[in-house]
Amino acid sequence: MTSPDSTPSTPADRIRNAVARRVPGRSLEGPFYTDREFFDFDIAAVFARQWIAVAVDAELPEPGDRTSVEIGPYSVLLVRDDEEKLRAFHNVCRHRGARLVEGDDGSAGNLVCGYHKWTYGLDGRLLHAPSQPAGFDRACFGLAPVHLRSVGGLVFVCLAEQPPAGFDEAASRIEPYLLPHDLSRAKVAARSELVEEGNWKLVMENNRECYHCDEHPELLRTFFPTYGYSEADIPLRLRPAHQRYLRADAELRATFERLGLPYTLVEELDDRSTAFRIQRDALDLAGESFTPDGTAACRRLLGDLPTARLGHLALHLQPNSWFHVLADHAIAFSVLPLAADRTLLRTTWLVHPEAQEGVDYDPDTLQRVWRATNEQDARLVALAQRGVSGPAYRPGPYAPTEYQVEAFCSWYIARLREELNR
Known about the structure:
Blueprint: H1 11-21, H2 31-34, H3 36-47, E1 51-56, E2 65-71, E3 74-80, E4 86-90, E5 104-107, E6 111-112, E7 119-120, E8 126-128, E9 147-151, E10 154-158, H4 167-178, E11 187-196, H5 200-207, H6 239-259, E12 266-268, E13 276-281, E14 312-317, E15 321-325, E16 330-339, E17 342-351, H7 363-388, H8 403-420
Antiparallel strand pairs: 1-10, 2-3, 2-5, 3-4, 6-7, 7-8, 9-10, 11-17, 12-13, 13-14, 14-15, 15-16, 16-17
């Protein structure tokens, strides 16, 4: 049994000691989920160092489109420039630090600071600064850039001066799975922002296991409840579902082979900086989409896919994102920390660029399953946050089906060790 440090120490010492005490196969100690100093260190070690999923290409379809994303204390400005290239900058005016853009700021020409009218081009160059003295060099005061990569229509940024190695290699392995869905040309059908009353790690841990999936009746219409189980560990009550899964999986593999779609599992969740898991997997019932009967939620299929019965492409990346990409639509989930006990979950639904609302898809049908699932998960995360915040909490053991939770915690602890050793 572990307990918080009983002697006074610096925040760095407390974090170092807690990292050293971490027992593989058990949940993290309470302060990892509750203490401000641990939260601040998470920002420094994880969110300010790693590649973070923040958006999708379809949120900025036209030159001049811009939006901002909050990552802890950082604000990142995303824009599409006149050459249709996506760019990212720190959302801070170089004059006296005012924010340039708040939230979704639509589309316009140059970026104009609302405070003193300093004006920037979409490439970040300072174009106009009123009333400056002779000799003022605008070239020295462009917006500070942020590293940005688009991978198959998914947008990632890295706040570090030097991004961690390995992202390009991971992207080259992920992108072939995504390209047939043509997400870079898709359009946003809906988006939700849900503030969960829990630490960002609890949100991610909750997503990485189906041990609790009985709490998701809408999702379990089509999502097989055997996710995470090994063949030998599947309980008797889930055997019928597993037999349905085996039949659907065999049929899908034949379809993937015929269409030339990559589908095999790649799972590298804790032994690399850009850690990920990707796989095409079967859905239950009609096997087409996340709907009550499993049929497609949108008549227009993504890309030029010839059939709706393709199950779902599941992609997960450490530290803050997961995606479900189907034949008829795609869903992107991004987890962004707000405070030690509050987290923003952004969910974005994408459809074919020519799909018409009310004709090809009904927005409620499209969103119903995952809106319900997100709300159910938010309730569970809040319960967990209240529990880990109490004096009786001690780290508990993971079940075999929670191996991806262990992988996440192992990856996270490794990032903290890296930061402590800098």
